[in-house]
Amino acid sequence: MSIRGRRLKKRARRSELNEDWSEAAKQYRGALTADPGDATSWYRLGRVLAKQKAWASSAFALQSAIALRGGSASSYFHLGWSLQRAGAVEEARRAYQKSESQHSIRPTVKGEPGRLLSYQERLDLAVMPKASYAYVLFRGASLAKRLGIPRITAVELGVAGGNGLLAMERHAATTEKMTGIGIDVFGFDTGKGLVAPKDARDLPYRFAEGTFAMDVEALTSRLKRAELVLGDAVETFREFMTTDPAPLGAVSFDMDLYAPTQGVLQSMNDHADEARFLPRVPVYFDDVVGNREQDYNVYTGELLAIEEFNQENPNTKLVEDRHFKTLPLNFDWHHSTYTMHRFGHPQYDTYIRKARPDSLALR
Ligand SMILES: C[S@@+](CC[C@H](N)C(=O)[O-])C[C@H]1O[C@@H](n2cnc3c(N)ncnc32)[C@H](O)[C@@H]1O
Description:
Elements: H1 3-17, H2 21-34, H3 39-51, H4 55-69, H5 73-85, H6 89-101, H7 119-124, H8 131-147, E1 151-157, H9 163-179, E2 182-189, H10 216-222, E3 227-230, H11 233-240, E4 248-253, H12 258-266, E5 280-285, H13 301-312, E6 316-320, E7 337-342
Parallel strand pairs: 1-2, 1-4, 2-3, 4-5
Antiparallel strand pairs: 5-7, 6-7
Helix pairs in contact: 1-2, 2-3, 3-4, 3-5, 4-5, 5-6, 8-9, 11-12, 12-13
Bound molecules: S-adenosylmethionine.
């Protein structure tokens, strides 16, 4: 490093300590004119520009630092932060993902040590595998907490090899730690893969008998807490609901076909025992958003089952989760996430906000 560069860097550091961000940026720029390959100056410049909310320039400086010396969890985190605020949300997400994969250094979230992003931010940015499962679990457990319900049931309907169920187990453990709500996890599957589609409603152009079979022994040996329920879920789920489980608080439908989806939804209809549910149950449907070849539509598959469910049940409705409309990002699972509103539930109307009479008072 040149003598001039070192001198300017020292000045920049002093300005930083005095919180004179524009002077610090000027000195770092000078230092970089003298020593353009100095990664530390690029990094500090990136941080200083972020203080001035010059997000795009900050992201550029941080990217330069990472290009020169590689990125740590913290540098990727700050890059993500600047990119997100510069409006480059997809790039921000990639930076956050890199930050997450570097084993983080600073605990920020109670119950989930060692993370730079909050759990809610990681969820919204989908910086985790199977974020859709984490989302329904976290939402269900958070609502249970507000309502004073200590334990919920989470189910995956359609397990196949078990990758989804294993992810659900992992997310359930994190959600339990963060919310203090106990979660029982169950996976329902025939164990033998898909049954033969009956008619066009089961999308035979897409789903074939016997696909997605399970190695029951291999999966059972990997499961830590989830229980497998084997057989036709239309029967086994109905039976399960009579065994006094904790209220259903998170559901993933992934049985592909219309018939079993419709059959299981019937066990959740207006006549079901409300004590077996949260008043609003987050429900993920895996086969409602897809590519042109999949051609999902409301006259077949899961979407038809949802349509019929809503037509048949005046007091229980499945509707898209509108929270996602508030986010700058758009993932397909956002549009696959529904809420089952159980208007007849005794706790449906329970007030869960913290607003007081003087909230929103005239200022
Ligand atoms: C696409 S796979 C599930 C993939 C899994 N959710 C994952 O994330 O890895 C669909 C599964 O639904 C199951 N399935 C279909 N109809 C069923 C029924 N009537 N009862 C139980 N399971 C069923 C099949 O056995 C198959 O394993």
